[in-house]
Amino acid sequence: MNKRESIDQIVALVTHYAEAVYNGDAEKLKETFHKDARMNGFMGDSLQLGTPESFFEEIANNPAMKDPFKATITHLAVTGNIATVIVYATGFFGEGIVEDHFQLIRDENNEWKIIAKCFTTL
User: In CATH, what number does 3-121 get?
Assistant: First the structure.
């Protein structure tokens, strides 16, 4: 797979992630993460460490964000089978602003997946 194909697939994955958050679809959201993914960061002053399971539950148990949620890729870098993507999101559960730093890997099925998410509210 060449770099252009990787970039296109990564943008599609991040778009799938954003659409799942927008629509409140935890099952579709799970599709974007590797089975061994980690998720760490800050919600306000609260440090959260662990897996994305609590995020999946939060998305599943709350109304869909819909408008005004908007996610924008502000940085994307690919090197071989790894990638970094930064997403700036507004309208997170209302008026929240979040920046997500994703680490991606090409998995055993040759698909790009989120292996780590580091996030902070702004």
Answer: 3.10.450.50
21-66: pLDDT as tens digits: 999 999 999 999 999 999 999 999 999 999 999 999 999 999 999 9
Matching residue, tokens 């993460």: 33
Residue ranges of alpha helices (H) inside the chain are: 3-23, 26-30, 53-60
Q: How many CA atoms lie within 13 A of 54 on its CB side?
A: 10
Decide the pairing of beta strands 33-43 and 112-121: parallel
How confident is the prediction for the chain on average, in pLDDT?
A: 97
Q: In whole angstroms, give the CA distance from residue 71 to residue 60.
A: 19
Sequence spans of domains, the chain: 3-121
Dist CA 81 CA 43 (whole Å): 30
What are residue 110's DSSP bridge partners?
none
Statement: residue 96 has pLDDT above 90: yes
Query: What average pLDDT does the segment 82-108 reach?
Result: 97
H-helix or E-strand spanning residue 89 = strand 82-92
